[in-house]
């Protein structure tokens, strides 16, 4: 009978190293769900079989027919061994077998208990012989439910017909019930494991199963009736059965050949298309010529589906002399991958080798046990000169059968195609690498830098180009020769790479000139990176037995308003950065390009030097932006925002003066000012009987100040404000700039009872691991996502995901930038807790905030009075 002979693949394919921990957790969750499902199926099967045996179909037997049971068990066993495997999709393997034939005959010759025991013994015996121990309990429950439901339906048909002896309609109906029950159990398993299968696909599979089951049952029923009525007719029945078997086998071969050709074509197209879209990678300046990690995972998944394997492992050497990269599709590998020489790979030679634990000994058995499998197909991927990789297929998902000759042939053909693709990829990568890289340092050259930088600038439009110039290189060349100068260039390139990290695009333009692209940095961060880079590059260079003293200038350029309007161009940024480097030679060794550098630097200098005076003269003030609860529309708190009205410059944007104050080391003074004003305001509200919390923004420098928690405790004590009415908002990038210093301070603040919120969530690291590390109570969705919810489905999906993630971690979720009614309604429908934005109120000075609160209180009271009057009338 056609039925699902194995559990569905209980894990998603491995996607990347960064997701390995999450994937392992998903696999464990799937395994737990399937264990629960197995227990339910087994329990229900035992209870059903016992109930039917005791209450409905009591045991009736004749001693002279003792041989019927063993013969039925042998028939079931033979029918399963002659089964035909059909691979459906996504790791689901179905087996078309002939077990309907002994089952339909069993209705006439044996009682329910004998047929049930024969089927159970044949099935479990085969599983144990195959050492498929992980699925015995599930399949035992399925066996029990198949036979129990078959006899139950058969006797219901007999009861409807008013007959007391078995008839062919009842036997036929009961026989068709068994594969239908098995199919429903398998589809339920797919659902339990949260795999997707369309309803139409499930219905088509069920229909085909019933058709094949009907044919098998009809053949068995017809053969039994003919032999029962005509004693010499058994040769004809055997001939019909053999003919039907031949048709099945022919159909199976044709279907397998077609699917194998499709799979081979799919894999070849995946490799070819991936190679066509190769680009220069920013990481380390390498060239990606061929499939990336995601492409190889897709290829592994396709091979796994076609072979109906529990797991397919690709071990690939994607770069010359590089370590093997492991890509897994299906069940995750056990902890600890292969270390050193592996006997399965060594014994494979150049052909596909099949290893079974039942036949293996010594190192081979140990290697199979290390992988946690009973059977493996292993084939190397070789070029003319070296081993390029290895393909492994583990444990066919069929309940009865292992890998066959067709699987071996298909894997060998696929391995040949993949080896050719890998070899071509390496040649193409070499050619592209030479075209886009500097031969001395291995970094990008100017064309390569243009290509790498173009896409990030188009997507983010906030890139910055750093230009670095070694100013003593020509002197070294003149004094010691070009070889010594080249050594210094290589050493400088390594220092820049170490300073910026492996994923920042870095190029050697010419001589001692380098360029790097920074994306997603604020202006002060770029300056800090440039300063750190200059310091490292200016350290002495040990060259052989000499120590060469040198100096470096760093210039950087970010897009100006004119650049953005005209369209951002990497060549323009490079030119601007070059101007900044030239300006750096005038004194400052780190300069940023500005259209009018003198005026801008003068304004910045004045702001920093006049900051303390501005505090004393009251030029700085604190405004407050209310936050309301979405379910109740009650005011929960406010965010404190600093404002500066300069006597000469007028209103200065906080985005301009806060970074300048921070860079000058005065951010602690500013934070103390905002904190003190905010606590004064909270104390006044408490005296008026109101409990309104206030949120104060923290800087990365505050989180590096070990005395900051003590200062906060003193301020709370001085104004007698409970810590739960104070919230500190911190950015992801601020914390992760130096987590070793920031985390202890955050934990100390949290222990005091102060509420901690992650500001601008979604624009930085925004990962589950990141949130779980921090002792935070709230997440604030960045306003860019909230503003785009009404027009961008992607932003809507991001907001919904952040709400769900925050609630799953027990955090309060705050949405910034709520400016429209539709956004507020969408957030409320998602379950977002708190809203903040212009729809509710702009940031207000103290007097205007008091008027706003009074007006809101009056409106609330008015609405309450109207509601009471309505009830009274």
Structural write-up:
Strands 16-17-19-20-21-22-23-24 form an eight-stranded mixed beta barrel. It has a five-stranded antiparallel sheet with strand order 5-4-8-7-6, with helices on both faces. It has 873 residues and is an alpha/beta fold. It is flat and about 115 Å long. The protein has four domains: 3-229, Arp2/3 complex 21 kDa subunit ARPC3; 262-330 and 341-436, GAF domain (Beta-Lactamase), CATH 3.30.450.40; 446-595, Reverse transcriptase/Diguanylate cyclase domain (Alpha-Beta Plaits, 2-Layer Sandwich); 607-853, TIM Barrel (Alpha-Beta Barrel). α8 packs antiparallel against α9 (293-307) and α8 (234-276) packs parallel to α12. The chain is built from 30 helices and 24 strands. α23 (708-719) links the parallel β19 (693-697) and β20 (726-731).
């Amino acid at each position: 009978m056609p039925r699902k002979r194995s559990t569905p693949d209980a894990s998603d394919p491995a996607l990347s190293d960064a997701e390995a921990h999450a994937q392992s957790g998903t696999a464990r969750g799937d395994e737990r769900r399937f264990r629960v499902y197995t227990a339910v199926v087994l329990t229900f099967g035992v209870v059903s079989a016992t109930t039917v045996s005791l209450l409905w179909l009591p045991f009736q037997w004749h001693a002279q027919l003792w041989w019927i049971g063993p013969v039925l068990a042998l028939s079931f066993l033979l029918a399963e061994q002659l089964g035909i495997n059909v691979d459906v999709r996504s790791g689901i393997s179905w087996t078309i077998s002939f077990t309907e034939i002994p089952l339909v005959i069993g209705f006439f010759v044996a009682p329910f208990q004998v047929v049930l025991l024969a089927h159970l013994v044949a099935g479990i015996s085969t599983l144990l012989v195959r050492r498929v121990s992980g699925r015995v309990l599930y399949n035992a429950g399925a066996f029990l439910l198949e036979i129990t439901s078959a006899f139950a339906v058969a006797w219901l048909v007999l009861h409807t017909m008013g007959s007391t002896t078995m008839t062919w309609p009842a036997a036929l109906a009961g026989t068709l019930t068994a594969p239908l029950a098995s199919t429903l159990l398998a589809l339920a398993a797919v659902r339990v494991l949260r795999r997707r299968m369309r309803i139409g696909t499930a219905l088509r599979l069920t229909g085909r199963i019933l058709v094949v089951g009907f044919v098998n049952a009809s053949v068995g029923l017809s053969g039994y009736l003919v032999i029962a009525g005509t004693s010499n007719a058994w040769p004809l029945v055997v001939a019909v059965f053999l003919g039907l078997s031949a048709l099945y086998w022919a159909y199976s071969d044709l279907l397998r050949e077609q699917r194998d050709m499709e799979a081979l074509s799919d894999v070849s197209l995946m490799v070819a298309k991936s190679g066509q879209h190769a680009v220069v990678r920013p990481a380390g300046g390498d060239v990606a010529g061929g499939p990336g990690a995601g492409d190889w995972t897709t290829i592994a998944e396709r091979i796994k589906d076609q072979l109906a394997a529990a797991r397919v492992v690709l071990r690939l050497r994607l770069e010359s002399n590089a370590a093997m990269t492991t890509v897994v599709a299906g069940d995750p590998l056990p902890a600890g991958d292969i270390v050193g020489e592996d006997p399965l790979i060594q014994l494979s030679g150049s052909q596909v080798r099949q290893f079974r634990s039942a036949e293996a000994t010594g190192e081979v058995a140990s290697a199979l046990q290390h992988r946690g499998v009973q059977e493996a197909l292993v084939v190397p991927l070789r070029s003319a000169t070296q081993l390029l990789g290895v393909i492994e297929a583990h444990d066919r998902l069929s309940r009865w059968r292992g890998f066959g000759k067709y699987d071996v042939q298909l894997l060998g053909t696929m391995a040949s195609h993949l080896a050719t693709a890998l070899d071509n990829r390496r040649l193409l990568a070499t050619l592209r690498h030479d075209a886009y890289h500097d031969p001395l340092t291995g970094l990008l050259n100017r064309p390569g830098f243009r290509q790498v930088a173009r896409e990030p600038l188009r997507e983010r439009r906030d890139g910055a180009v750093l230009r670095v110039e070694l100013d003593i290189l020509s002197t070294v060349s003149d004094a010691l020769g070009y070889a010594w100068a080249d050594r210094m260039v290589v050493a400088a390139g390594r220092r820049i790479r170490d300073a910026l990290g492996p994923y920042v695009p870095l190029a050697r333009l010419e001589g001692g000139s380098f360029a790097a692209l920074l994306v997603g940095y604020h202006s002060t961060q770029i300056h800090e990176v440039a300063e750190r880079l200059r310091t490292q590059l200016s350290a002495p260079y040990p060259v052989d037995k000499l120590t060469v003293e040198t100096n470096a200038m760093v210039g950087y350029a970010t897009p100006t308003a004119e650049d953005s309007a005209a369209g951002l161009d990497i060549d323009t940024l490079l030119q601007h950065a070059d101007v900044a480097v030239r300006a750096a030679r005038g004194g400052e060794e780190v300069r940023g390009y500005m259209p009018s550098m003198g005026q801008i630097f003068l304004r910045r200098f004045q702001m920093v030097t006049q900051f303390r005076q501005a505090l004393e003269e009251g030029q700085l003030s604190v405004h407050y932006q209310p936050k309301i609860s979405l379910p109740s529309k009650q005011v929960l708190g406010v965010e404190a925002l600093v404002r500066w009205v300069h006597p000469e410059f007028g209103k200065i944007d906080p985005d301009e003066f806060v970074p300048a104050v921070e860079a000058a080391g005065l951010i602690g003074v500013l934070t103390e000012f905002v904190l003190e004003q905010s606590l004064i305001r909270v104390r006044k509200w408490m005296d008026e009987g109101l409990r309104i919390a206030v949120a104060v923004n923290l800087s990365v420098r505050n989180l590096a100040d070990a005395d900051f928690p003590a200062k906060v405790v003193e301020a709370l004590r001085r104004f007698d404000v409970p810590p739960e009415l104070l919230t500190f908002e911190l950015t992801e990038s601020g914390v992760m700039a130096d987590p070793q210093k920031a985390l202890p301070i955050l934990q100390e603040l949290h222990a005091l009872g102060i509420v901690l919120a992650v500001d601008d969530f979604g624009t930085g690291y925004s990962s589950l691991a990141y949130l779980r590390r921090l002792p935070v109570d709230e997440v604030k969705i960045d306003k860019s996502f909230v503003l785009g919810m009404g027009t961008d489905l992607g932003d809507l999906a991001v907001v919904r995901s952040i709400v769900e993630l925050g609630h799953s971690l027990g955090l309060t979720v705050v949405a910034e930038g709520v400016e429209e009614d539709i956004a507020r309604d969408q957030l409320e429908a998602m379950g977002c807790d708190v809203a903040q934005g212009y729809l509710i109120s702009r940031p207000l000075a103290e007097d205007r905030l008091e008027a706003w609160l009074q007006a809101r209180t009056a409106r609330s009271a008015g609405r309450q009075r109207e509601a009471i009057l309505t009830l009274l009338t």
